[in-house]
């Protein structure tokens, strides 16, 4: 876990810095200079382009993580592996582009009434898809090399600062909304340029087009893995974006803007989890390669326990402070207060079970994950159709929670049966019980007549003392406690003190 802790801390810090900039962009600047309909459009274009880029990629991003280490050799230009991947993704992008033109009348028919602005800017999906497709490949390549800091910095900091400058220029009346949209799409190519230049300078990517020297047998293996991996990845992205698509269809772009803004805010819950998983992926691949199931299960349990501790604290803090936090949002967004508790619970489950998906899709039984993915898509689609007309955006949040919980449980059970490994430890029950008791105590016993700022400071502090401190002292998560010890040791050294 040493390499995971070290790199995850760096990416987490950068991600939270980016989240702060994003919060400024989405909660303040966007609502000052844009209408809720325009915000909904920006978020919808982004969500749909993420879905389309993953379809275009045809699972190649996961193939890079899984297979690049087998072909990596700069002198041989990696046997043309990266060129082979680019050809697959390029064909996928051309197919998706053609389908966007073919199905435009269908899209117009479904969205022209409730979300006409989406129809007007429909074709901006194509360059956004291209930018995200490039990022998927570059990000996966760097991830397989344990190079996560530059990727996170480029996407979380640089991209968001570019948006800050862009929206200020638009707010000053210097450019029109149409030009703002065009420039916003173009900014997504900037992180790709940074990553590409870095890879060229480090020699990983050559300036010449390499000859593909991959045997037909390996090509077949890569394509087979990419196909099933694509189904699983697209299924996950589909579940993440279907809510905004269906809210735009059944309700309005305004409500889409509110819903997606709250989802972005809840994304803070998963930043530590994503940082840890980013580093853990190549380790899982390594354990499969070495057939080391003992280390695999150890990593599985450790990451699940650490994520449980971090997830409970962040979710509990967001839930307990939801009313105070929403006072910073525009009045329209406060309508979705119930979404915080519902989606946050789903993200907490996803954090705890998160590594089972990585173990599954990098195993030899990755094909079976497609069954769970298709069932999840069907479930979330049906639930959204039923619940959105009944409960509005809250109904969509319930549908997403149900899909996340069902999907993760199914995956976990299958991995348990197939490989005899699971994420459970007895200490996790103690962690959950302490967390539940503390949350209930703060919710019902904490004085509510204090001012907003006092509550925003006091609730997280009390949660930390009553939850994190016992977890640390009792060493309910050895990795969490070891990490805190390491932090204190560094502080003591900086202060010139000796740890007693």
Q: Could you tell me the mean pLDDT?
A: 83
By DSSP, the count of extended strands is 0
C-alpha end-to-end distance: 25 Å
The assigned structural class equals mainly alpha
Helix content: over 70%
Radius of gyration over all CA atoms, rounded: 23 Å
How is the biggest beta sheet arranged? none
Give me the strand/helix succession: HHHHHHHHHHHHHHHHHHHHH
Beta-strand share of residues: under 5%
List the uncertain runs.
none
Number of helices: 21
Shape: globular
Would you give an account of this structure?
With 500 residues, the protein is mostly helical. 80% of the residues lie in helices and 0% in strands. The chain contains 21 helices and no strands. The chain has helices at 2-33, 36-57, 60-71, 81-102, 104-111, 116-120, 125-144, 149-171, 177-187, 190-201, 216-250, 253-266, 271-290, 293-320, 322-325, 337-361, 369-391, 393-419, 426-445, 452-473, 478-494. Helix 11 packs across helix 12 (253-266). The radius of gyration is 23 Å and the shape is globular. The two termini are 25 Å apart. 44% of the residues are buried.
Task: Summarize the helices and strands and which ones pair or pack.
Elements: H1 2-33, H2 36-57, H3 60-71, H4 81-102, H5 104-111, H6 116-120, H7 125-144, H8 149-171, H9 177-187, H10 190-201, H11 216-250, H12 253-266, H13 271-290, H14 293-320, H15 322-325, H16 337-361, H17 369-391, H18 393-419, H19 426-445, H20 452-473, H21 478-494
């Amino acid at each position: 876990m040493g390499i995971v802790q070290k790199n995850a801390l760096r990416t987490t810090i950068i991600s939270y810095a980016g989240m702060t900039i994003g919060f400024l962009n989405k909660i303040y600047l966007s609502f000052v200079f844009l209408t809720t309909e325009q915000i909904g459009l920006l978020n919808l274009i982004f969500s749909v382009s993420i879905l389309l880029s993953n379809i275009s990629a045809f699972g190649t991003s996961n193939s890079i993580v899984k297979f690049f280490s087998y072909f990596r050799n700069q002198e041989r230009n990696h046997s043309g592996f990266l060129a082979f991947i680019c050809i697959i993704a390029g064909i996928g992008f051309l197919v998706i582009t053609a389908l966007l033109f073919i199905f435009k009348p269908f899209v117009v028919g479904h969205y022209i009434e409730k979300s006409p602005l989406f129809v007007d800017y429909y074709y901006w999906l194509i360059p956004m898809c291209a930018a995200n497709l490039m990022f998927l490949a570059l990000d996966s390549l760097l991830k397989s090399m344990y190079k996560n800091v530059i990727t996170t910095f480029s996407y979380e900091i640089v991209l968001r600062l570019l948006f800050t400058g862009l929206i200020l220029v638009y707010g000053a009346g210097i450019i029109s909304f149409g030009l703002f949209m065009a420039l916003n799409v173009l900014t997504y190519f900037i992180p790709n340029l940074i990553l590409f230049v870095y890879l060229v300078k480090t020699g990983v990517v050559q300036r010449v087009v390499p000859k593909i020297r991959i045997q037909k047998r390996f090509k077949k293996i890569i394509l087979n893995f990419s196909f099933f991996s694509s189904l699983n990845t697209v299924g996950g992205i589909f579940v993440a974006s279907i809510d905004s698509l269906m809210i735009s269809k059944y309700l309005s772009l305004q409500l889409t803007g509110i819903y997606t803004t709250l989802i972005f805010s809840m994304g803070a819950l998963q930043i530590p989890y994503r940082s840890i998983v980013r580093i853990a992926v190549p380790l899982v691949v390594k354990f499969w390669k070495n057939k080391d199931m003992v280390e695999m299960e150890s990593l599985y349990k450790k990451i699940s326990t650490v994520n449980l501790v971090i997830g409970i604290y962040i979710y509990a803090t967001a839930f307990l402070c939801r009313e105070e936090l929403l006072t910073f949002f525009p009045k329209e967004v406060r309508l979705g207060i119930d979404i915080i508790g519902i989606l946050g619970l789903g993200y907490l489950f996803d954090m705890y079970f998160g590594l089972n998906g990585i173990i599954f899709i990098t195993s030899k039984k990755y094909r079976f994950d497609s069954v769970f993915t298709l069932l999840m898509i069907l479930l979330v689609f049906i639930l959204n159709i039923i619940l959105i007309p009944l409960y509005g955006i809250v109904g969509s949040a319930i549908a997403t929670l149900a899909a996340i919980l069902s999907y993760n449980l199914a995956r976990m059970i299958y991995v348990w049966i197939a490989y005899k490994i699971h994420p459970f430890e007895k200490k996790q029950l103690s962690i959950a019980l302490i967390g539940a008791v503390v949350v209930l105590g703060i919710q019902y016993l904490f004085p509510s007549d204090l001012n907003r700022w006092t509550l925003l400071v006091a609730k997280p502090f009390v949660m930390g003392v009553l939850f994190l401190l016992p977890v640390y002292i009792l060493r309910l998560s050895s990795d969490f406690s070891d990490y805190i010890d390491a932090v204190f040791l560094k502080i003591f050294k900086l202060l010139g003190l000796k740890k007693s």
